[in-house]
Design goal:
alpha/beta, Aspartate Aminotransferase, domain 1, Aspartate Aminotransferase, domain 2, 8-stranded mixed β-sheet, 14 helices, 15% strand, binds 4'-deoxy-4'-aminopyridoxal-5'-phosphate
Amino acid sequence: MNDENARTALTGVRSRELYERACRVIPGGVSSPVRAFRAVGGTPLFIERGAGQYLYDVDGRRYLDVVNSWGALILGHAHPLVIEAVTRACHDGTTFGAPCPAEVGLAERITASYPGLEQVRFVSSGTEAVMSAVRVARAATGRDLIVKFSGCYHGHADHLLVAAGSGLATFGRPSSAGVPAAFVAATRVLPLDDEEALQALFAADGERIAAVIIEPTPANHGLLLQRRAFLQALAQATARQGALLIFDEVISGFRLARGGIAELTGITPDMATFGKVIGGGMPVGAFGGSRAVMAHLAPDGDTYQAGTLSGNPVAMAAGLTTLDLLMAGSVWQRLETLGAALEEALAPVLAQAPFPLRLVRAGSLFWLSLHEGDAPRTAATLAPKALARFAALFHAMLARGVYLPPSAYEACFLSASFGEEDIGYFADALKESVLVASNPP
Ligand code: PMP
């Protein structure tokens, strides 16, 4: 336990007070469900500020943060140059509802970085980016069906909130109340890592498929690293049938490499979606493709899409500064070095853990998997015992000043503000926490 936390251990009074107030006026007390700590129990921390690799809660406790706003903060909290750019932009006005120079600059950087991308349009979230990309794909192909994969999350748009089937292709069934079955009737769900299921669906319905969408490095059901051959099969199947391949790089874009998973695999999708890193901590999403595909969008084309705050000057300034810092500083190399150091530091801890615990990692993106056996490539569910162990692990880490995501299925993120000593701190905290979690209540 770090000193600061020891002083305030077992208090958290202000977080609890705020949570009570929040629950009265905000459903579940939170603006996004996972923040409510339901999967791990306890009261969510209310955060007062962030600085570098640390979060500070309203009770004055400090946490080493491996959530980093769910991957949005690749440079860490309140990077001085990002804050300077945002502050400068704010002084000039926070929104114009008209084009601004920074959005041109950000679009130029994204299109110059990502293979095959000629144009992008900005929106305010990953959800919007995916929703709009799918609409364009349908317009571009004149087809309706969308194929997604079990375990991949693409935001909360109706037609992508679809329960996953196991084994074979399933017809979409909504995984949320409030989504009419008719809205997901044109969505098909396939298992990851299964070329046969893919070929079977294309053989049956290929001519109706507008797009196949995938997180090329799925990071919303743990981290399910895919075989390149599988992604290649998707690219071949879509190309053969005149369907579009959409890489949802909301997490992986500019996180793992300048050109995302497209660069790392050499597989160029027809369209890509972005969020998180490209906004430098501000609400930004983007979707793009070739000029021919994007020509379907209004005002040039007949596919409507719009946003009052899209291309917002403050958000664009944060994104632009972040991408410039990433590109100027070989930051991805540094993040890989940090990730490798984490792997090395955790190896003895994981080897000695009295229950299954493994590190699955891609660069600065990692997952502590509690699955038995090999790291899964498909969306396997965890046994109740493993979930209970994770909850205990989460709270033991929190007590030691480490903020893990409050769910066993969520991935973790390092930021460039981490140093080697933070990796050591994380490993030490995990070593102690694993012992605490070996006998969950
Ligand atoms: N796609 C992916 C791959 C995501 O991880 C997320 C969010 N975690 C989204 C889309 C939706 O993004 P947002 O939460 O910004 O709407």
